[in-house]
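Need residues for this backbone.
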């Protein structure tokens, strides 16, 4: 049964879910995303620079475009989405509910953009693809972007990408802009992992989050798909192949604004099993009123520790090689050769082709992933 607060304009969840009053976005932000945002927020004059830049960006044009050529979610239009949006803002304690629009587009996608105020846009392809609980997680994902302030950077990324296309014929100009775009894309991929966590905090249904990502990858054929098998793809993708495959993975990822869908699912499941997630669910999390005391140094230290742990635990051949280099492994030339050719596991083949007992069987090479942009 849907509960109502004393204020008629405030919805609360239609089923029992925990609310995170005063939660800071630091609670769910990916370490790399969080350290970049904390550093930017601490920069002197940062807000002034972006307010000045906002006059050069077509934000007003974007708002008018969606107002004139999309359907605005409200109490009269897409009422079920409006309830989910207000629920998400209630759970994450976002004071002002951002406007949300449904845009006619068969490609399932969603975004949160805007400089002065965030706007959430979802496509008809996404609305038609997902069920209620899956859609709740996606809307929570976008509200997480709004709470973290990601909309500003996403708008700039869209703007710079458009500029890069227009000046592609100018070699040096395009190189300079694409360098910035590439850096922003790397940050934005990390911000997507943060927003996935926010979506889980809003939906509080891990299986729904998994199903939503799986549908974004494979379409509305849920009876033909399996969450465990989908997650197994992420494991195969990470550890399969040799160094050539690792390089191809990087090249495939560079032009994307979103991580690969299987990787997002695996990352979210991993986070849901951590003590950090459980502490949030138990009501122990950073508060917004403490953000001003956040240490940039501590955030960078957390980010560095995360990357070190990623290298240490990664199954990717390139990351294993980086770990070997950091650990001062011997016979580096031989290891590099073996990684590129897919040979060897722990010993060097003799004349008879035998290896030492520590060698592991080769993993099957994973085919290239194309991935959907997602939300």
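Answer:
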């Amino acid at each position: 049964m849907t509960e109502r607060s004393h204020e008629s304009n405030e919805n609360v969840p239609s089923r029992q879910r925990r609310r995170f009053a005063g939660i800071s976005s630091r609670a769910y932000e990916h370490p790399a995303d969080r350290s970049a945002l904390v550093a930017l927020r601490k920069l002197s004059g940062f807000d002034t620079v972006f307010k000045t830049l906002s006059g050069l960006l077509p934000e007003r044009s974007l708002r008018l475009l969606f107002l004139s050529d999309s359907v605005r979610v409200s109490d009269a239009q897409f009422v079920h989405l409006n309830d989910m949006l207000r629920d998400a803002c209630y759970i994450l304690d976002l004071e002002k509910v951002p406007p949300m629009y449904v845009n006619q587009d068969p490609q399932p996608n969603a975004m949160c953009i805007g400089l002065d105020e965030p706007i959430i846009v979802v496509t008809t392809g996404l609305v038609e693809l997902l069920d209620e609980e899956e859609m709740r997680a996606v809307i929570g994902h976008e509200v997480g972007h709004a709470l973290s302030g990601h909309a500003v950077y996403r708008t700039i990324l869209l703007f710079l990408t458009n500029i890069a296309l227009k000046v592609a014929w100018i070699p040096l100009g395009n190189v300079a802009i694409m360098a910035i775009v590439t850096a922003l894309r790397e940050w934005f991929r990390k911000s997507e992992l943060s927003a996935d966590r926010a979506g889980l905090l809003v939906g509080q249904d891990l299986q729904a989050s998994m199903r939503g990502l799986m549908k974004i990858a494979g379409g509305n054929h849920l009876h033909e798909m399996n969450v465990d098998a989908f997650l197994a793809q992420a494991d195969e993708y990470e550890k399969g192949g040799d160094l050539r495959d690792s390089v191809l993975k990087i090249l495939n990822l560079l032009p994307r604004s979103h991580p690969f869908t299987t990787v997002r699912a695996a990352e979210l499941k991993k986070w849901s099993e951590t003590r950090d997630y459980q502490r949030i669910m138990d009501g122990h999390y950073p508060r917004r009123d403490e953000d001003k005391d956040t240490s940039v140094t501590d955030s960078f230290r957390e980010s560095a520790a995360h990357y070190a742990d990623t290298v240490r635990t990664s199954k990717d051949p390139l990351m294993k090689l980086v770990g070997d280099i950091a650990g001062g492994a011997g016979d580096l030339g031989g290891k590099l050769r073996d990684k590129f050719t897919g040979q060897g596991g722990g010993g060097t083949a003799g004349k008879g082709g035998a290896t030492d007992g520590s060698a592991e069987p080769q993993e099957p090479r994973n085919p290239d992933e194309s991935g959907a942009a997602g939300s």
